[in-house]
Amino acid sequence: MAYNQLYQLGPWRVYPNINCLKSKSDTRQLDNKSMQLLLLLIQEAGSTVSKEQIFEHLWKGKCVSNDILSVTISKIRKALDDNARQPIYIKTLPNEGYILVASVKEITNTRSRYINKTRLLTILIVMCLLLIALVTGYFTQSIKTNEAPALNIGSIAVLPFDDLSVKQNNQYFADGLSDAIINQLSQINSLKVISRYSSFIYREKYSAPEIGDALQVDALLDGSVQKLDEKTRITVRIVSTQNGQLLWSNAFDSDNRNNFQLQDTISEAIYTLIQPNIDRASTHNTARQSQTINAQAYEWYLMGNIIGVNARHTH
Known about the structure:
This is OmpR/PhoB-type domain-containing protein. By secondary structure, this protein is of the alpha+beta class.
């Protein structure tokens, strides 16, 4: 029987959860055993409840005398203002048990339902907040996990970038970009950077361990350039020469008019990746100066630079 259920027994309202009987003008308190017995009689209202049932229900088969049961019944009768000789609530059946003779009805506990609904709503809100916190924490952790950590690289070779453009007419730009990255990385004192004359001979496909053994470097940096209409996409990656494992990769997109700024962005990203605590002032100054360069002039510069380098290398 639910202890949050209320009952109306004559003028008395029974509150099992607080072991209390209330009328319009009075309040009576019962002990726990007395309330349990009253609830049992209410549950079996109109039917005889044997002493054996009562002993089993209240005392779980423990050895209890009839006197204790009689005292418990007396407490209930006293609280109800009942008389054993002329009972209006509980009638004694000699050698059998007891019977509740008064009418009883369940009372809808609207307050209890309201409290239950409020508790349920509170639980749902708390669960939603916890779910939001967990999801937020998960994605925050995922973002932190996906942030590229600083690479422990002591030496690197920059390979010529591939031209993936449809017309295959931007190799000068790809080579110029590789050459510019070599120049930028050479500014890091703690990093050994292989010159283009040694690294560019590996334009054909070789395995990372093979190139690493030949050039004695920890990692390789390569990538690709793809121009489509007015857009340029440059993909850069760093690979370990020990086992060919991809250590880092990223894609950079730009308008063709801002390719020189795109080069600065790529150099900045690689700088930060290899040596995150490096002073960025010189790089920022270079980026600001490059904003004044005409885009077409920059293309001509790269083309002329590669032609000049190739000519020197040929002779």
